[in-house]
Design goal:
The protein contains four helices and eight strands; from the N terminus they run βαβαββαβαβββ. By secondary structure, it is α+β, with helices and mostly antiparallel strands. α1 runs antiparallel to α4.
């Protein structure tokens, strides 16, 4: 089985991202990304034999992490057909990512992924699929004309689980961040 970790968008930011995802569905058709809530991955998918130790790890990580701000501004694309909301550089998010890479390798022998560490590009995917090239360009242009621009407070981490055999992802565990003074 495969799992990954992400920061969950909440409140109005969740609503905004979901509205964008649903609008982009017009050009992309069904989007497997709609099966999971809007989020920012901070640990890319990795293989595990049991989810429980990683749910416990995520709970401990969240309990020792204070809420922090993340700013999303603008949009971007990954080849061949992925559109995303752009996360602005963020030291707290990068430090969290680095901490998780070190701890997972030390405690569970999980190796960093190809696009992790210094190569990480934090983002919130809003469309992924196999549209025609013309539909992709149209969707990308629509997204550029309606760019995101907001800051939100990270309060919840999610553990994502890859469904087999279809390969879609769901969130299967929430972990609330620690509170100041607790």
């Amino acid at each position: 089985m495969q799992i990954g970790f992400g920061v969950l968008l909440e409140g109005e930011q969740f609503n905004y991202a979901r509205r964008v995802e649903l609008e982009l569905r017009r050009w992309f058709g069904m989007n497997d990304g709609l099966k999971q809530p809007p989020h920012i991955t901070f640990k890319a998918p990795f293989a595990v034999s049991s989810m429980e130790p990683f749910a416990n790890y995520l709970d401990e990580l969240a309990a020792t992490t204070l809420p922090f701000d993340v700013t999303i501004k603008g949009v971007g694309a990954f080849p061949p057909h992925v559109l995303y909301l752009n996360v602005q550089p963020n030291q707290r998010l990068f430090a969290l990512h680095t901490r998780v890479l070190v701890e997972l390798e030390r405690e569970f022998q999980v190796q960093p992924g190809r696009f992790e560490g210094q190569q990480v590009k934090f983002h919130s995917t809003v469309a992924i699929g196999k549209p025609t090239e013309e539909a992709f360009v149209t969707a990308q242009e629509w997204l550029r004309q309606n760019p995101a621009s907001f800051t939100f407070i990270v309060r919840t981490f999610g553990l994502f689980y890859r469904l087999e055999p279809d390969g879609g992802w769901i969130i299967c565990h929430h972990s609330a961040l620690g509170e100041p003074g607790s």
